[in-house]
Amino acid sequence: MNLWYTAPREQEVERGKIQGIYERSVVVGKNYMDPRYQILENLKVSYNYFKIKLTAPGTPVPKLGQFYQIRCSTTTDPLLRRPFSVHRFVQLGNIAHLEILYRVAGKGTEWLSNRKKHEFLDILGPFGNGFILDEGNLPLVIVSRGIGIAPLYAVGEEVRKRDNKREIFILMGARLKERVFYESECKSLGKVFIYTDDGSTGFHGRAPDLLLHLLQEKKLPEKFTLCACGPAQMLKELDELSVRFGFRGQVAMEDRMGCGFGACLSCVCPLRVSEIVINEQWEKPALQWSEDGTQVFSLVCKDGPVYDLNEVDWNEWTA
Amino acid sequence: MNGRPDLSVHIGKVSLRNPVMPAAGTFGYAIEFAPFIDLNRLGAILVKSVTLKPRLGSYPHRLVESPSGTVCTIGLQNVGLQRFIEEKMPFLRQLEPPLIVNIAAQSVEEFGELASRLDKVEGIHALEINVSCPNEKKGGMQFGIDPELTYQVVKAIRKETDLTLITKLTPNVTDVTVIAKAAVSGGADALSLISGSLAMVVDIEKRRSRLGRNLTGGLSGPAIRPIAVRMVWQVAQVVSVPIIGVGGITCAEEALEFIIAGATAIQIGTYNLVDPTSLIKTIDGIEGYLVRKKIRSVRDLIKTLKI
Questions:
Q1: Which of A165, B48, B107, B303 is 20 to 30 A distant from A72 in Cα terms?
Q2: pTM, whole model, 2 decimals?
Q3: ipTM for the predicted complex
Q4: Nearest residue on chain B to A260, judged by CA atoms?
C-alpha cells in the first residue's frame, strides 16, 4: 500500500516547509494539493445521493468492495476521514477514473457534495478486502438498500463483463419511492426487483421480505450466491434466510472508522468462531481472540469490509 | 544563527532526537504507519497498551465523532504480553528511536509483574503507565483518580525495573497536581498528560448512547487541547520531572503551546488517524519556529510562559 497523500496547511506552505513528502504536489492557489485526485464531476443523482468522478492513480487497482478514506474537511470539524467504497474504477493507462457513489448524511458528506470540478481531494487507500467473484458461476443475487448499491453495482458490472451469460438478479429499494435510485443503471445488468417499506413502488416490504417472497414463489434459481450491502438489521435477516434456504453470500459492512488502516482498533466486528473464513484473498490479519478462545473480534478496515454472510456474529453486531 | 536548531530532549534516562512522539493507542504497533512516514525520524516510538493477558476490548461500536474530537472506547484491546514480545518486538527493535511501551493492568500486583517481565526484554527504553484503567480489586475504580493508588502502582513498578517510567495522568480529577505529585513520589521519572476526558454522545432517535452498550468513552482530539495545556501548565508548577504534553495536537504551533506551558516533549494522538504524516510535519514545524525565533535549542523554550 503506497497510496497516500495529505495536503499541508496554508501556514506550512508559507513557511516554506514543503519538502520531501510533497515533491509530487502542485500549487493550487495558496495550497499544495495532490494532483492525483482531481474532481472531474460531482453530480446529484437523486434525492440526497451524489456521484463523484475523480482522476486517480492507475495502480493499485482497487478490488471491488474496498474503500478509500477521504478527508471531508479543511478544518478539525468534521475531523475524521470518511470511508467510501469503490463504485467504479476505469483504468486509462497510468491514470484512472475513480467513481464514488455517496449519500449526504452529515457534515462530512455535505462538504463533499459542495466540492466543484477541478478541485482536489485528500485521499488514502484503497483499504480492506474485496468481494470474491470467482466462486463458480452460480447465478448472482444482489441485495441492497439505499446507498448500499454503490459497491454492489460494481460487482454486477464486473460479473457481467466476465461472463455475459451469468444470471444476475438485483433486489433494491428504500423506505419510499422518492429514494429509490439507480434502477435504470441496474436494469442493464440483470433482472431488477424493487421494494419500498411503504409500498409506494414495487414490492411492499423490506429487502429480506422480498427475498423470502421470491424464494417461496420460486422466482429465483434453486442455487445462487448472494452479495449484499445495507443496514445491519437487513444483513442479519439475510443471514437467517441463508441458513433456512441454504445459500451462501458475502456482505460489505460499514462502520464508523478512526483511521481505516488498522491502527486505532475502533471498527471491530464480532465473528462467529466456527464460521471464520480465511483464504488467500481474505487473510484476516487483525483478528483478536479472547483469552479463552470463545470470542473473536475482527477489524472492519483490515479483515473486512467484505465478509462471508454467515461469519459475522449478527446478534453481537446489532446489540 | 549558524546550523540547525537543537531539537533533542531528555525524558528520564532516555535521549530523544526531537520532542515529538505518537500517543499510545493511536499508533498501533508502529508498523501500521510505516507506509506513510519514516519512523526513524520520530523522537520516540510509543505503542499501544500492553496487558499481561490478551484482551478483546470493548464491544462495538467503539467510536463516535464529536465537534473537533472523537469519543472512543477501545477497552485496551491488545494481543497480550507474550504475543507482543514474540510478534511485535522484532519489528520495533529494528527502529532507531527509543521505544516506550504503554502498560495497563487491573491490579497493583499485575502492574508489577508486567514491569518485571518487560524489564528483561531487549529494546525497550521506557514504560508509560496507563493508570486510567479500572482497578478490579477496588470495584473498578480508576487507579489514576486516587493519589494513594497511583503512588502504589508506580512504586510497585519502580521496584521491578530501572527503565524510565512515565505515568500518564487522567484529566478526570479535581486537582491533577495531587496525582502528579503522588506519581513522582512513587518513582515516576516523567509524567504524560492528558488521556481522554470521559464523555458521552446520545442518539436522540434511539435514546441510546452512540457508543451502544459501552455508554461512555474518552473524548480526545482538538476539543480537549486547551484543557490539556492548562493541566500541563498546572503540573509544571509543582513537579520538576519532565512532562510530556498530549491532547488534541494537530501541528507544530499547537505542540509549541504545550512546550511553552511546561512540556519537555509532546505526543500526537487522534490526529495521526486523520493525517498519518502529522508527526513529521510537526517536527519540521517546530524546527521552523526555532529558526524563525532564533532559538538555539527547543530546551530553551520549555516552561517559558510569561505571567
A1: B48
A2: 0.91
A3: 0.93
A4: B273
